[in-house]
């Protein structure tokens, strides 16, 4: 029995592959791109890669049959910035691709499907909101809309066909290999000082955000894949709360002498910084109760690992 990682050559997917290998499982990556050695290292030799397109349901079905797959994890998508620039492609990949995955899983009578979703399905939320999984879903981006559409199909495939599904709603993922979204902030705050440059963050240092280190995201997917039907379909995942000021303090502890300006009045030349952030308390208690999810990477530990990765890449 094996697990098919659709989009497994992406950043979250590659870290899921590593997490599975650590637990003694051998995943099969289904992706047009080859598995990234920058993330997987020598472990890339232990992973089977099936070159395939999720827009072709027959290719997914063949990959499931040929590899005796009983579990599928679907991480493939165009993320926020690319989805905003390519809305038609985002609808094709994020939504229609997910429909193809669901149909292939139904045909093959898969034991479990884990679908990577996002906090963007909630849309803008106020700073004093408690965001549990039943919070209203009102996305205001192409990315969030396409992922919500995928969630809707997951709900109906679950109720109509009995397909056992969990969706993992990730919030603001950062870590090795990640370059978009919240990683624009970590790349500015950590990457520039590492290269001997001054960093500038045009945010209120007290602004808080719930963020997710990529290894916590990966572990949540693997844990969800190991349980049967749970009390609900979708689960919030993050690594905890951090303010912009705490990010800066953590970087300065790791890189003494780092020059980082922070404040709303600060000007910057950085091109990948996100606008600030979805508000509210992003509650993960349901994932803790149903599949024992606990974050392992508070901001200081996540940035420490990210720094070691960036140093290796510089060599």
- As laid out across the biggest beta sheet, the strand order is 3-2-1-4-5-7-11
> What gap, in angstroms, lies between the N and C termini?
39 Å
What helical percentage do the residues reach? 40-55%
Low-confidence stretches: none
CATH homologous superfamily of the largest domain, by name? NAD(P)-binding Rossmann-like Domain
* Rg calc: 19 Å
CATH names the topology of the largest domain as: Rossmann fold
Number of strands: 14
- Helix run count: 11
What does this structure look like?
There is one protein chain. The protein is about 40% helix and about 20% strand. It has about 325 residues and is an alpha/beta fold. It folds into 2 domains: about 1-175 and about 210-240 and about 280-295, NAD(P)-binding Rossmann-like Domain (Rossmann fold, 3-Layer(aba) Sandwich), CATH 3.40.50.720; about 185-210 and about 240-275 and about 305-315. Strands 3-2-1-4-5-7-11 form a 7-stranded parallel beta sheet, sandwiched between helices. A 3-stranded mixed beta sheet has the order 8-10-12. Strand 1, helix 1 (about 10-20) and strand 2 (about 30) form a beta-alpha-beta unit. The longest helix is centred in the N-terminal third of the chain and has 22 residues, at about 85-110. The protein is globular.
């Amino acid at each position: 029995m094996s697990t098919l990682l659709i989009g497994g050559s992406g950043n979250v997917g590659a870290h899921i592959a590593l997490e599975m290998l650590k637990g003694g499982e051998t995943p099969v990556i289904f992706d047009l791109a080859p598995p990234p050695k920058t993330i997987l290292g020598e472990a890339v030799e232990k992973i089977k890669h099936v070159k395939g397109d999720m827009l072709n349901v027959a290719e997914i079905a063949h990959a499931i049959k040929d590899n005796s797959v009983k579990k599928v994890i679907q991480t493939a998508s165009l993320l926020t910035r690319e989805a905003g620039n390519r809305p038609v492609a985002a609808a094709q990949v994020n939504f229609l691709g997910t429909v193809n995955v669901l149909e292939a899983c139904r045909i093959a009578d898969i034991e479990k499907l884990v679908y990577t979703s996002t906090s963007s399905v909630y849309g803008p939320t106020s700073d004093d909101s408690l965001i549990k999984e039943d919070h209203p879903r009102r996305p205001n981006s192409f990315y969030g809309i396409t992922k919500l559409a995928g969630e809707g199909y997951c709900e109906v495939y679950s109720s109509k066909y009995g397909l056992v599904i969990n969706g993992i709603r990730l919030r603001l993922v950062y870590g090795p290999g990640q370059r978009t979204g919240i990683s624009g902030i970590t790349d500015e705050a950590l990457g520039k000082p590492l290269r001997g440059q001054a960093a500038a963050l045009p945010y209120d240092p007290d602004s808080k955000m719930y963020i997710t280190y990529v290894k916590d995201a990966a572990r949540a997917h693997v844990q969800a894949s190991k349980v049967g039907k749970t009390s609900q379909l979708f689960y919030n995942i993050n690594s905890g709360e951090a303010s912009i000021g705490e990010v800066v303090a953590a970087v300065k502890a790791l890189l003494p002498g780092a020059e980082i300006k922070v404040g709303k009045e600060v000007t910057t030349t950085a091109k990948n910084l996100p606008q600030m952030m979805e508000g509210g308390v992003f509650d993960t208690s349901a994932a803790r109760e149903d599949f024992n999810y606990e974050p392992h990477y508070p901001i200081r530990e996540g940035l420490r690992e990210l720094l070691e990765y960036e140093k290796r890449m510089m060599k």
